Amino acid sequence: MNERIRAREVRLIDENGEMMGVMPPMRALDIARERDLDLVEISPNAMPPVCKLMNYGRFKYEQAKKENEARKNQKTITLKEIRMRPRTDDHDVEVKTRKIQEFLADGDKVRVSVQFRGPDMRHPDIGRKLLDGIAEDLKGIATIERSPIMEGRMMSMIVSRAPGWEPPKKQAAPTTEKKASTEPTQTATAKPDDEPAHAPEAEEAAAQNDDSAQNSQTPEAEAPQE
């Protein structure tokens, strides 16, 4: 870069990617200084070497930024392990197979192992049959990266996620909402009270008033006869 370039001639490219021709490196360096840029050798093995005008500090910053972004987006693949016995029952095998699918859905690899103990060591074919059955169940979901092999008391295989396989999306549980009642509300209408019956005391008082009125009338006296 800059004064460290020892070639007799260089092919110069400006900061916009335009070819400026072949010239001595000192002439190219003068152009770089006039534009307040650096002269960077990008193809030292070319004939003549290719140099480019650029802001080297900014170039290094952009490169570091891109590398950091790439590391953030890069997923770390871990190797999970599922263990079982040669005589593991079918239900447990199904549960462990579903667990393998969960690991694969997360992008991890899985070592599926069968552990032998005591008399089981005399029947490795049982473990091989078990692993072959799991591989068949994972067909289209997993790729067998390493076929089953015996390592001491363990027989294991390694599987990874099959290209193009997408795990099913989990469906959200439906929410139940209480529906408002649409039945009309019946409003009780008050009925007018029956007309009150006349009290006996009132009737008796009215009768007495009538009698008093009749008694107060004085009969006319008869005129004397001559």
From TrEMBL:
SUPFAM superfamilies: Translation initiation factor IF3, C-terminal domain (SSF55200), Translation initiation factor IF3, N-terminal domain (SSF54364). One of its GO terms (molecular function) is translation initiation factor activity. Residues 191-201 have a biased composition (Basic and acidic residues). InterPro entries: T_IF-3_C_sf, T_IF-3_N_sf, Translation_initiation_fac3_CS, Translation_initiation_fac_3, Translation_initiation_fac_3_C, Translation_initiation_fac_3_N. Residues 77-160 form the Translation initiation factor 3 C-terminal domain. Keywords: Cytoplasm, Initiation factor, Protein biosynthesis. The keyword Protein biosynthesis applies. Its main location: cytoplasm. GO terms for cellular component: cytosol; membrane. IF-3 binds to the 30S ribosomal subunit and shifts the equilibrium between 70S ribosomes and their 50S and 30S subunits in favor of the free subunits, thus enhancing the availability of 30S subunits on which protein synthesis initiation begins. HAMAP family: IF_3. Belongs to the IF-3 family. This is Translation initiation factor IF-3. It comes from Tengunoibacter tsumagoiensis. The gene is infC.
